[in-house]
Design brief:
This protein has 224 residues and is α/β, with parallel strands linked by helices. It has one domain: 2-enoyl-CoA Hydratase, Chain A, domain 1 (Alpha-Beta Complex), CATH 3.90.226.10. It is built from seven helices and eight strands. The protein has helices at 50-58, 76-88, 104-108, 136-161, 165-173, 184-190, 204-223, and strands spanning 26-29, 32-41, 65-74, 93-102, 114-118, 122-125, 180-183, 195-197. Strands 1, 2, 3, 4, 5, 6, 7 and 8 form an eight-stranded mixed β-sheet that branches.
Length: 224
């Protein structure tokens, strides 16, 4: 007998990126809609599950979508469902990896037309995880589900990257069996993302050096 796993989430979290009803944050502007996939993929309490994301997209079918991602993953098949929802959206879509896109979140974000990643963010893929309890038949069914998911994940990554399924299956397993983590540069090289976003702010020292350079140039011009 299979039971749904309920994820515990505190009733209130200070500075959380959610509205007063503690639901997934999304906003509308003239440029389209923006959704934050922050936290656990598949948590219907915080509405970061596939059904909630699909409802947002369905209600805004003709509007461009930007999905910002900061998630270590969650429910595997919700990740695939969010991927398909983004891929099916008729208007342009962007996925932006703000900090980490791991596990199910790494699948979800790839459904966007273009995937961008902050220069200091991490992309992580790994094989499916599950716990099995029961008779031999139950355990075999768990293994079957894992194998089917792994195949679906590999096909999804291959569709984005153009890499062979053999190469991606090896990356999904990883050298130690826990998958493969990629920096932004490595993710770009593999084809998981399309662009790296660079930090906009400069350090105080850089700003001071730039100011000194401009002052020196002005002094030289004045001398001429």
């Amino acid at each position: 007998m299979k039971r749904k796993i309920d994820l515990f989430t505190p009733k209130s979290i200070k500075n959380a990126a959610k509205n007063d009803d503690f639901r997934v944050f999304w906003a509308e502007s003239d440029a389209g809609i923006e959704v934050l996939l922050f936290g656990t993929v598949g948590d219907d309490y915080t509405e970061t599950d596939a059904g909630s994301i699909q409802r947002i997209l369905s209600a805004n079918r003709n509007k461009p979508v930007t999905m910002r991602v900061n998630s270590f993953g969650g429910l595997a098949f919700d990740g695939l469902a969010i991927y398909n929802a983004l891929a099916d959206h008729p208007a342009p879509t962007r996925g932006i990896i703000e900090s980490v896109a791991a596990s199910a979140a790494s699948l979800a974000v790839l459904g966007a037309d273009r995937v961008l990643m902050q220069a200091n963010a991490i992309f992580h893929i790994h094989e499916g995880l599950a716990a099995g309890v029961g008779h031999i038949a139950d355990l075999r069914e768990t293994i079957d589900w894992l194998e089917k998911f792994n195949a679906a994940a590999v096909a999804t990554y291959a569709a984005k990257t153009g890499k062979s399924e053999k190469e991606l299956a090896a990356a999904l397993l990883g050298a130690n069996g826990d998958g493969t983590k990629y920096t932004a540069a490595e993710a770009l090289q593999m084809g998981f993302i399309d662009e790296i976003l660079q930090a906009r702010k400069t350090s105080k020292n850089t700003s001071k050096n730039r100011a000194a350079e401009l002052a020196a140039r002005a002094k030289i011009c004045a001398m001429r």
